Amino acid sequence: MRTVTLEGQGDFGEWRDAARRLLVDAVTPDQVRWQLSGQGGDLFGSMAEATTNEGGTSDIVVPKGFIEAAEAAICHSDPDRFALLYRILWRLQEERSLLQVSSDVDISQLTRLIKNVRRDSHKMKAFVRFREVEGLQAARRRFVAWFEPEHFIVSRTAGFFQRRFTDMDWLIATPKGSAAWNGEELKTSREPAARPEAEDETDELWRTYFANIFNPARLKIRAMQSEMPKKYWKNMPEASLIPDLIAGAERRVAEMAARQASQPPAFHERLQAQWRGREDEGGDADLSPLARLREEAAGCTRCPLHCHATQTVFGEGPDQADIMFVGEQPGDTEDLAGRPFIGPAGQVFDEAVGAAEIERGEVYVTNAVKHFKYERRGKRRIHMPPDAGEVAHCRWWVAREIEVIKPRIVVALGATAYLSLTGESRPIAEVRGMPIPMQDDRMLLVTTHPAAILRMPDADLKARSLAAFRSDLQGVKRLYETLPAV
Ligand code: URA
After folding, report:
1. Average confidence (pLDDT) over 254-266
2. From the CB of 327, is ligand 1 less than 6 Å away?
């Protein structure tokens, strides 16, 4: 009997070398005992015993596909994997088509191992949650993540993270090895890594994101738990929300249904109501310039969008705010309520504004276009982006809001706002983050639109965009603090 002792941490090379020697020495599978180091036995002695015919390996040929299959299966944590692979390797010398026999007991076991490893790798790609840590070099941001895979998949999955997150330094630590990227070199280790400490702000971002994308009407608890198994929850900051979201789902579905059923009143009824209201209030003689502007805008017919929207959604905030945020256009919730940024994008906005220690009540929040543009799909009204003509018609209102409020900083949330404020169409990435002088010593800052973040299909990209959005708003706060007092 030969005993082979391996580290068994997903290193295909160590198994391959041992298996090759055994095969050359014609050691049959039932004559080999495979064991993991640390499980007793003489590690060095047993390997030495297996090296009697090291040179004669040239006639070992394996069918295409075996190496790839074995490289995956060796990452499984099943202690029988070494014996299984050697048994298959042995049989392949005679049974050249063995890999195609899916009903064979060894092959079906091999298939099961590979499937489990691939699934674990997929879960790692989906559930790794990076946390930002202080960087020594300000130029590159640094992130760490802790993940608990079932199998030794870190090395084979690390390339995915390198391709996806090339522009930041990161470390993924797991009890089954670690991977690190510094912009130039990907390093992997099979040694168990220590768990990085403590929760940080990125965790809160994940929770905000998850709460925003959670759709109670689509809740299928069993499907959700099979996609996001409970064992991963403890390392996913947003998972702490799940029980409450599930518990409140029924109520929220009822609320959504009630909201969807509500029809905006017809246009002529709205106009009549406005006129009646104005007469009741005895005209607009005592109104502030901003309130008068709002009144005027309520009857705006400068473009056809007013025909289908419930009402004009004008800006909101103090008459003399120092900071003005300009979004794109009201969404469904804003259209029905008549207030800007109170729906899902508004929640992301509020969260980031709060994190930057900016009081929402002290800033003026408005939109480049004041009416909701949408397309009907059944009972739902789906957001449609305004075109350049609609933005141009509404610029008139934005310019007058700036004139009245006289903000010292204007923040464009997205490309439509930038177009409205400058007349230029530019990708946000080109103008983001640098203060652009406007008239009257006013500064324009440009960042992304929170709704664009919510629409991103990729969870990691979404979390990073949220972090960047937050950091832009902190930049707004910093710029504000450096302005000379007036
Ligand atoms: N998106 C906007 O641009 N503005 C809003 O008010 C809501 C969503």
Report:
1. 60
2. yes
